[in-house]
Amino acid sequence: MRNKLKKIKMIILDVDGVLTDAGLMMGHDGFEYMKFNVQDGAGIVLARKLGYHFALITGRNTAIITRRAEILGIQDVYQNKLYKMESYEEVLKKYKLKDEEVCYMGDDILDLPILMRVGFAAVPLDAVPDVKKYVDYVAKRKGGEGAVREVVDLILDGAGIKKKLIQDIIAGNQSGRPA
Known about the structure:
By secondary structure, the chain is an alpha/beta fold.
């Protein structure tokens, strides 16, 4: 697994069930609300500072996802994409990446085409059971409850930079980039 993790340059995430717990709250006014995990967000920000690219590909289309991506500095956001392969191909082309340089994290059967192609495929603990048998890693945490952070940490550790990152932050190097 370590050899796969060392090659990763891009992390692509589904949103519902990965960055969120797949729940959706609706107010009486018709507004939708989604809950995101702050530790997931911190992991994304740290990994971005280390040079990793991120993209979101989701079947939903909402301003909430756009806003969360802005906060995390994720520029590549593909919404309203029930079938996600076209967006995946676009990301590969844009960044001149090979499949083995990409980690994808999804949670349902519509994610399978990408999960089966990427260099490192991951799902949250509560992913659909039929999907779990096709991936490299099943997180110990559920979607929206730190599963993304767990996978980001796994990638940083596999690349051999997590320990140095922690030491640098303790030493006061707040850039997030190991010296």
